[in-house]
Structures are given as C-alpha cells and as structure tokens.
Design brief:
The complex is a heterodimer of chains A (120) and B (112). Chain A is an all-beta fold. Chain A is built from no helices and ten strands. Chain B is mainly β. In chain B, strands 2, 5, 6, 10, 11 and 12 form a six-stranded mixed β-sheet that branches. Chain B has a four-stranded antiparallel β-sheet with strand order 3-9-8-7, with no helix packed on it. In chain B, strands 1-4 form a two-stranded antiparallel ribbon. Classes of the chains: A mainly beta (120), B mainly beta (112). Chains A and B meet through strand 4, strand 5, strand 8 and strand 9 of A and strand 5, strand 6, strand 10 and strand 11 of B.
C-alpha cells in the first residue's frame, strides 16, 4: 500500500493476556518507530529501528514490552501479561532517513492510523 | 535528556483570530524541529519543519521560526479557520540520532 499500515485497528483484551500489534511501513523506508499515545500524555517514544543497526529500545516502559523488525520491513510490537495501564493507541511511523548538507534530520515521519488497545 | 514543552490546551479561538502555540525545547546538541498535526479521525502528519537556527518553516499559512537563543519554535497563524481544529505536536530530533521526541500536544478548537 501507499501508506503505513497497522493492524489490528482495535484490540480489546483481558488483563494478563499477551497481544501483538503489527506495522507494515512504507516500502523502502529504513527507519521505523513505535509510539504510544495516551490521553493527556502526548506521544511517548517506545522503540526505534534504523536499517541494520541495533534498535533504540530506551523508551520501552517495562520488560513486558518487546518489538521485532523482520527483514528490515514489517515490525511487531508484543506486550506480554497486559495491564490496564497499557491501554492506549499504539502508533507506528516510518521514515526515509535523509540529512541536509548542513546537518540535521530532514526525513519526515509517516504515521499509521494506530492500533487502539483496551485492556479490561 | 532531550525534551519538548508546549502549552497546554485546549485552546479555543474564533475564526480569523491570530494563533500562537508556544513550544520550547531542551537539547544538548543542534536539533531539528518539527510541528506535526493530527486532524480529527486522521493520523499524524508533518505540518512544517526547521533544521537550523533562524530557519522559518511554513505550510498552510502556519509559520514557526527556530530560535536558538530562546530555545523556542512557536507555531503561529495570522487568521485561523474552522478546518484548523486539530491537535498540534511540537517535536525535535538531534543530529546524532534520529529519535524524534514529541511534546504532549495542544488541542485547538476554532469556533465559526
């Protein structure tokens, strides 16, 4: 497709269950990001993949959260033993990283429409 | 660490009013600065950006100037429209890595 695709768009689960959220980035984009959007909390950075480099996992809130990116394309965010505080919209974005001659990131992020997770 | 602080909303204005949404940042290096917008029912999209000090980003009548001396990137529009109602996010990234940090967002309501 032309844009970033995320699935499922909505997921309702029971506390303690595991969930997987999928992101299919724009073809050719080397960078992939996961963010969490909670009411009143803005966009919280979770994890960042760039090409073949080791991912930046510094935003993952606990060891229940993990993410993979297979073959430099599709990514899966897994939340184990879900808690009610995990309820949020999980956003994926991809980017074709580019730098201006003077330095600085010029590639823009393209966001998917998100996966809304509700933990009962 | 790097951070972005933007004014809390919601901001409610009448159509054709002047808009300012304040954004200040903390960064150790020389960040690039962005404004993203999320219209109702849509995904986030880039509104404008500036990659070095004194640059002015502009799009759809919105402007923001990268002010290094005040570490600010305030968003302005001279005459807002009902269609500008959305949530606006200020963001930054530093040269040394591409992790993009967002502010908490400011919800804007424009009344006809």
């Amino acid at each position: 497709g032309a844009g970033v695709s995320q699935s499922p768009s909505n997921k309702v689960t029971e506390k303690g269950k595991d969930v997987e959220l999928r992101c299919d980035p724009i073809s050719g984009h080397t960078a992939l990001y996961w963010y969490r959007q909670s009411l009143g909390q803005g966009l919280e950075f979770l994890i960042y993949f760039q090409g073949n480099s080791a991912p930046d996992k510094s935003g993952l809130p606990s060891d229940r959260f993990s993410a993979e990116r297979t073959g430099g394309s599709v990514s899966t965010l897994t939340i184990q033993r879900t808690q009610q505080e995990d309820s949020a919209v999980y956003l994926c974005a991809s980017s074709l990283r580019a730098r201006a001659l003077a330095g600085g990131l010029t590639g823009e992020l393209f966001f998917g429409e998100g996966s809304r997770l509700t933990v009962l | 660490g790097n951070s972005v602080t933007q004014m809390e909303g919601p901001v409610t204005l009448s159509e054709e009013a002047f808009l300012t949404i304040n954004c200040t940042y903390t960064a150790t290096g020389y960040p690039s600065l962005f404004w993203y917008v999320q219209y109702p029912g849509e995904g986030l999209q880039l509104l404008l950006k500036a990659t070095k000090a004194d640059d002015k980003g502009s799009n759809k009548g919105f402007e923001a100037t990268y002010r290094k001396e005040t570490t600010s990137f305030h968003l302005e529009k001279g005459s807002v429209q009902v269609s500008d109602s959305a949530v606006y996010f200020c963001a930054l990234t530093e040269n040394r890595d591409d992790k993009i940090i967002f502010g908490k967002g400011t919800r804007l309501h424009i009344l006809p």
